[in-house]
């Protein structure tokens, strides 16, 4: 067993990982709320049941998969969550509050996974809603761990893993109505989950504070009357002592309660203001580093780029490290030693995406208001302007797109649409062998300051996203997922009734709430739809512009305003409303 410190909204959260690799199984909790008080279940996203009629209900049936199926077989497990493209899986379990109207207090959450050594890692965020506001979900915490391969024991194919979340103060969440699991990109694309247990108890009704106060006042009045009506003997030579009456004590307690109620919101607001200021400072430093990079390199950094290239032994093919825009900016944010490690060809042979030497935590990349940072290393809150992502089929009618409508098209990443383009070549050598590997990359043209026709102070460079991945995320062979995990993108969509620019086709997909700034926040699954700015700041997100200024952008702005903030040259871009003229008042 090992204890991990997790990124979460609850500072007292304790996460335990247990493993059984001897063919045995864990014991299912008998007082699981999902077995005894479940009202309904819903699932969205990429949920892939195994054979044998497995479904989301089976995850909470108190059994580890269908009976009579040998452990180690995929059909032994209840469900699988994975990417399957850009999506994940979201499961929501609603508890029965018809009798327990105040909901439930949660004390423990267990998730069990298995299958084989390459797919036993778990990665998810768990949230809850309360009976007072059942549509708003609050994050308890996140978990992200890819386990090492198992090397011994019976049935080496199926490591049994249990992740247990508890709270050192006793309760994970109070007055719970629903529990939601957002499963993100898993180890090797898939993870088999066997069972989910949620422990807790129904909230017991207590007398209203106002009733207690009235009762106390009444009792105090009775005591006072009795005291006044009672004959008091006089002790000569001794002064009589006046004690506080019960009424006076209750009045003092009530005043203290009122003062605390008035002060707490002010204290919380002051703390959030300080956190937001720190976030602005972080983004300001990134923006200034970006300016320095452009002045030296005469271009902006790539979303992905190569570092520390060297020649493979006996081959003319170069081998490279693949890194993100963060690596390019390291020398300009005071982290030259780490950049030297990346730039040194001698370290290329030891580079892997799991080598923590290359991926330390950097405070500048973490917003203090970001409540969910599930990564153990390379924690990150910020995303760059990755521009246009042409997922809509209507894009096939745009000039030069046709059947090449796809995320990795060079056309979509031209400087009129995008600032941080993917600069990887179509193929490159990766350590340790140095052979040529096909990997997403088009050698998209670099964006320069001369390409920013809409003004440096009104073109976004960086912002924040609560769903942002580790700053070391580069995706897998042949995909473009880094644009979603480490970038903010705009889609070919508009508000209902919008007037399109001349010659622009009508979008074939509707604008969704999740597409807009702060849309669904943490309730969203990270995919193309949710690759937009989001934050825990109240009603705004911080956006650093290419000119070095940082703006508090209102999360209620229209989508075409958001698109214009991301396009370096709106009129020449593929925006549906490319005739729109951006004004500062439209986004602040």
Structure, described:
There is one protein chain. The longest helix has 52 residues. The N terminus is likely disordered. It contains seven helices and 21 strands. By secondary structure, the chain is an alpha+beta fold. The strands form four sheets. Strands 1, 2, 3, 4, 5, 6, 7, 8, 9, 10, 11 and 12 form a twelve-stranded antiparallel beta sheet that branches. A hairpin with a 2-residue loop joins strand 8 and strand 9.
Overall average residue pLDDT: 77
Q: Give the helix level as a range of percent.
A: 10-25%
Number of strands: 21
Provide the gyration radius in Å: 29 Å
* SSE succession: EEHEEEEEEEEEEHHEEHHEEEEHEEEH
Shape: globular
Tell me the major beta sheet.
12 strands, antiparallel
Number of separate helices: 7
Strand content: 15-25%
What is the rounded distance between the termini? 50 Å
**Poorly predicted tracts of residues:** 1-9, 49-54, 67-72, 83-87, 147-158, 208-219, 222-226, 228-240
Q: Could you say which structural class the secondary elements and strand pairing correspond to?
A: alpha+beta
């Amino acid at each position: 067993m090992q204890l991990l410190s997790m990124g979460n909204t609850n500072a007292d959260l304790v996460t335990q990982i247990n493993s059984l690799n001897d063919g045995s199984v864990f014991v299912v909790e008998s007082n699981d709320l999902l077995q005894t008080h479940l009202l309904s279940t819903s699932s969205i996203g990429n949920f892939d049941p195994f054979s044998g009629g497995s479904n989301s209900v089976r995850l909470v049936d108190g059994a580890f998969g269908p009976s009579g199926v040998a452990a180690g077989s995929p059909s032994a497990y209840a469900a699988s969550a994975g990417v399957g493209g850009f999506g994940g899986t979201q499961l929501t379990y609603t508890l029965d509050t018809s009798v327990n109207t105040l909901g439930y207090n949660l004390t423990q959450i267990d998730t069990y996974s298995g299958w084989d050594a390459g797919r036993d890692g778990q990665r998810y965020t768990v949230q809850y809603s309360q009976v007072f506001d059942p549509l708003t979900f609050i994050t308890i915490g996140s978990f992200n761990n890819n386990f090492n391969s198992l090397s011994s024991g019976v049935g080496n194919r199926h490591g049994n893993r249990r992740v247990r979340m508890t709270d050192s103060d006793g309760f994970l969440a109070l007055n719970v109505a629903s529990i939601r699991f957002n499963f993100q990109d898993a180890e090797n694309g898939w993870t088999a989950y066997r069972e989910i247990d949620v422990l807790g108890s129904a909230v017991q009704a207590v007398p209203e504070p106002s009733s207690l106060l009235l009762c106390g006042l009444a009792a105090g009045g009775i005591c006072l009357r009795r005291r006044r009506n009672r004959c008091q003997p006089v002790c000569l030579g001794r002064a009589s002592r006046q004690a506080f009456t019960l009424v006076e004590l209750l009045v003092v307690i009530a005043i203290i309660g009122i003062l605390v109620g008035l002060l707490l919101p002010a204290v919380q607001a002051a703390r959030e203001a300080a956190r937001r200021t720190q976030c602005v400072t972080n983004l300001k430093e990134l923006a200034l580093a970006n300016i320095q990079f452009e002045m030296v390199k005469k271009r902006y950094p790539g979303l992905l780029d190569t570092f520390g290239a060297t020649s493979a032994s006996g081959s003319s093919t170069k081998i490279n490290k693949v890194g993100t825009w963060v690596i390019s900016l390291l020398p300009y944010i005071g982290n030259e030693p780490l950049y030297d490690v990346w730039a040194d060809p001698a370290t290329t042979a030891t580079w892997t995406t799991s080598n923590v030497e290359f991926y330390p935590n950097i405070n500048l990349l973490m917003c203090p208001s970001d409540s969910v940072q599930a990564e153990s290393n390379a924690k990150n809150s910020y995303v760059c302007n990755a521009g246009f992502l042409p997922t809509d089929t209507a894009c096939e009618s745009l000039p030069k797109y046709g059947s090449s409508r796809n995320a990795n098209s060079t056309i979509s990443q031209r400087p009129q649409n995008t600032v941080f383009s993917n600069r990887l070549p179509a193929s490159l050598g990766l350590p340790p062998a140095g052979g040529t590997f096909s990997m997403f990359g088009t050698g998209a043209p670099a964006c320069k300051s001369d390409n920013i026709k809409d003004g440096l102070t009104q073109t976004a460079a960086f912002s924040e996203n609560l769903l942002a991945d580790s700053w070391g995320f580069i995706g897998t062979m042949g995909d473009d997922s880094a644009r979603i995990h480490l970038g903010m993108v705009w889609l070919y969509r508009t508000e209902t009734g919008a007037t399109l620019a001349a010659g622009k086709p009508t979008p074939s997909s509707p604008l969704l709430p999740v597409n807009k700034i702060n849309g669904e926040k943490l309730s969203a699954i990270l995919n193309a739809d949710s690759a937009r700015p989001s934050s825990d700041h109240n009603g705004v997100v911080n956006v650093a512009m290419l000119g070095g200024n940082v703006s508090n952008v209102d999360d209620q702005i229209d989508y075409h305003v958001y698109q214009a903030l991301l396009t370096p040259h709106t009129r020449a871009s593929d925006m549906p409303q490319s005739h729109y003229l951006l004004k500062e008042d439209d986004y602040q």
